[in-house]
Amino acid sequence: MERLLAGRCFSKEELLRFLDHHGLQKALSQWTSYVQAAYLRGRLKLTGGVERERRRQFPWSRPELHYRCCRCGTGNEKMYPADCIHCSGPCVYCEECLTMGRMQTCSLLLYGLSVDREDTRGSLEGQADRDSTIAKWGLSPAQTEAARQGLAFLAGGNRREPGRFLIWAVTGAGKTEMIFPFIDYELHRGRKVLIATPRRDVVLELQPRLKRAFPDRSVVTLYGGSEERWDQGEITLSTTHQLLRFYRSFDLVIIDEIDAFPYHNNPMLQAAAQRVCTSDGAYVLLSATPPAGFIRDAEQGRLEHVKVPVRFHRHPLPVPRILMIKVMSGWKGRLPSNLKTALQRSIDRGAQLFVFVPKIREVEPTVEVLRRQFPGCSVEGTSSQDPHRADKVTNFRQGNIRLLVTTTILERGVTVPRTDVFILEADSGTFDSAALVQMAGRAGRSKDDPNGRVFFAAAAHTQSQARAIRQIRQMNRLAKRKGYLLEHP
Ligand SMILES: [Zn+2]
Ligand SMILES: [Zn+2]
């Protein structure tokens, strides 16, 4: 039981299901004695579900009662009084992590502690060994450089606390291939690897690729409702919520899209992500648009990082062009002529078009205007509230939809070979520079059509637009300077 529990964080109910899953019937029937023995042997840590303390906001104010969920780290704002039959109260429960099972004041939370292990560093220490680890993955020059720097980071120095390494890779750079050498290297040293991503579809898409890349390693895939919830693997692939069931479990934690929902500004998942790494382990963070704090840390030398400024096909990123147009409310059912011309040109060149709008309620009216102006083209709209979203995305992928009007929900993930991107009301506060870069990143992904067209259509020129264009230009310049771009005759 101790061995299986190492690196896990469970409630009592989860413990019992876990023991049952692994066929530990004796431990299951006498679980309190087993837990007590493991605790006394120093192999288990125990806490309540919710911590409470009296705290003053200012030295002169009255002390107030503060609660914090021990599983997800959430504070007072998501705590509600529990109708509790187990204790004499007062008992509160955490709403934030309720989907993982109820955590309340009198719940028991168990953390399996890992045994000390031998230091496995040194098995692949030399640069030559590391280069041979990279060689078999067939990476582009820019990817190779990132992998080399990342491996040097993983091999370097004994750490007291987990290290962090940022890979700032432009959209379409081929992040997945870049992380294979890291996984390979760590597995070689007998260490455990976690890949966490905010999106379930990414988990499902990544699973077969990982299994193909590492055929003789065990891969466990975790998401809400996954069958493998109680299993341990050499490689764990997980959505962010599932991390709440781990405690100092992984030596290498790769976090995809650190800037994407639900990491950004979500203390719960940040707390979970911080807890899953062993004390001498490392984080590799991936992003095309890192949050400002990460950029600052990187520029000031507090965060080791590498930039991958070019796409895998080695063509520069399309630079967005500005289209000055009237605000949408003033269109009166007709497209501004410069926008219409630009759209027509994209249609004429045979592209499929992403048309982004800031708000869900603008999707339908935009679809209507476009249908009227381009009667020969199939125009559809979708948003997070559209029950047919998945079908429409599939249809767009298959080329059955020519123009797809959407909100930022499709800023990531959807890749179509020949696409142009139109961002309407690009001056809206909904679009920060990161969102603009991500949406622009939908164009030119394929090596057969690397020069897609991107337009910021707006009545005003904003800081965010300027910053997005600057960032894209800087990456292109860096790619050119490093010699990553293909030579054009
Ligand atoms: Zn919680
Ligand atoms: Zn209670």
TrEMBL record:
It holds the Pfam family Helicase_C. Residues 156-308 form the Helicase ATP-binding domain. InterPro entries: Helicase/UvrB_N, Helicase_ATP-bd, Helicase_C-like, P-loop_NTPase. SMART domains: DEXDc, HELICc. One of its GO terms (molecular function) is DNA binding. Residues 338-489 form the Helicase C-terminal domain. The keyword Hydrolase applies. It comes from the Bacteria. Keywords: ATP-binding, DNA-binding, Helicase, Hydrolase, Nucleotide-binding. GO terms for biological process: DNA recombination; DNA replication initiation; double-strand break repair. PANTHER family: COMF OPERON PROTEIN 1, PRIMOSOMAL PROTEIN N. This is DEAD/DEAH box helicase family protein. It comes from Paenibacillus oceani. The lineage of its organism: Bacteria, Bacillati, Bacillota, Bacilli, Bacillales.
